[in-house]
């Protein structure tokens, strides 16, 4: 684990290397009050490593500082992009995929173009606040112009992301926002998506 300076304070970065040649880099962020050891993030890490993808788990500065309440969206995006820029020197020309769970998925979607990402992995993308379907966040994921892989829980109170052109959605039966129910099915689906786009060994 190492610290990376950002305009909003130090972020933490954990890098896991695959065996053999690196086919892509997946940078993944956490949910609003959680960390990068959430079960769905770990499932993605394990599967991506086996497919030849370097996995970079990024902890936002507010969480490093011990706060559970997320920073404003603009600060989250700024810190995220600062970390990705710091990593770019060692990534070289390897394709970059960005992702996250919940709040982190929103950050990845909002910054995908600025980061030069070739794809997005969105775990439990929060379509709307619970009980507030009129406050849709779908424009954030609809705006992504590269392939997107989404995992949604069938019973997630934050909503289920709909299928769309360029967007593959895995719905876990009976799962809620934490995606624990059916988490063991995420890896194979992710690797299939990576392989279809040439990002898997």
Q: What's the helical proportion of residues? A: 25-40%
Estimate nothing, just give the exact number of structural domains: 1
* Rg over CA atoms: 15 Å
Question: From the helix content, strand content and strand pairing, which structural class follows?
Answer: alpha/beta
Adjacency order of strands in the biggest sheet: 1-2-4-3-5-6-7-8
Total number of β-strand segments?
Answer: 8
- Summarize model confidence as the mean pLDDT: 96
Total DSSP helices: 6
Strand content: 15-25%
Named at the architecture level, the CATH assignment is 3-Layer(aba) Sandwich
Do you know the CATH topology? Rossmann fold
What's the shape? globular
Sheet with the most strands, sense and barrel status: 8 strands, mixed
Sum up the structure in keywords.
single chain; 201 residues; Rossmann fold; eight-stranded mixed sheet
